[in-house]
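Sharing in case it's useful to others searching the archive later.

Someone asked me privately for the predicted structure of FHA domain-containing protein, so I'm posting the question and my answer publicly. Question first, with the sequence:
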Amino acid sequence: MHLDLDAMSLTEIIRLQTELSQVLTRRFERPLALGFTDIVGSTAYFARFGDKAGRALQQLHHDLLCESIRPFEGRIVDVAGDGAFTCFASVEKAVRGLVVFLERAARVNETRSHEHRLVVRLGVHFGPVLTDGVIVSGDAVNLCARITSTADPGELRLSASALRESPPDIRVRAFPVPPVVVRGHPEPLVLFRFDWRDEHRLPGSVLVRETGDTFVLPRQDLISFGRLRGDEGTRGNDVVLSLRDTKLEQRVSRWHFELRRKPEGYVLRPLSRQPTEVDGRRVEAHGEALIQPGSIVRLSKAVTLEFLARQEAAPGNASPTLEPRSG
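And my answer, the predicted structure tokens:
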């Protein structure tokens, strides 16, 4: 059947448009779990280390993601330089597959220097899309990308619709974040941070007892502590121990120690020749000590750090009640 669109009236074209929309919906619309991953700081990485290193980091991201989501029937729909768009049959498979990806990236990062770590942000959304089994398109795809852009480094965020479709063991590990407004959606979005690290076992902040200074720990697998600040072209510490007492601050080394994420939790590794003690025991160079909420770290026999639990990781701070999932 040949249609002469140039000969059709406005009314006929509008009717045809409506019919085509109905056919598209009937044949190709279905709900899917969508996931986006985005490499944090990729533009600056390319600028600093060059195209070869940048492409290698992108390839590492792609390979780890493919290996991780395949057992969960996930696939990469599209790749856009520093990120990837994935889809899954269910939110449960999306979350579990992306958590495996995060865990594999964390293990790889243990062997890489601070500057060359693979750090990503992720988002999962559940909604209707148009798909023929290869192409996936629709407003839900754009929304998932924008949800991902709101996440912090190393964070996996879920939309409210994704959380509704999640099983109980995923829902109890999702914590609400402050509502955010994204382009194309005038109303603030209700989003949730998925606790893929089991953060009830991890400290979330550190208190300097001598001064009362408190520092929030970033959610990442390697956290460096010291008094060196970064500037253009120079990397500083993740937690800069800038104290109100400047004389006391000088007792802290430029690079004093780091926390590394392992299966059992964070472990402390000294980076300075100055003495570092954990719960009253000195940690020698190349040694390690487990850091948990309540751990006390003494630096240079002068500065006392107390590691505190994240408030949101405490019992009773889980996500609010949502409507049961569909199906």
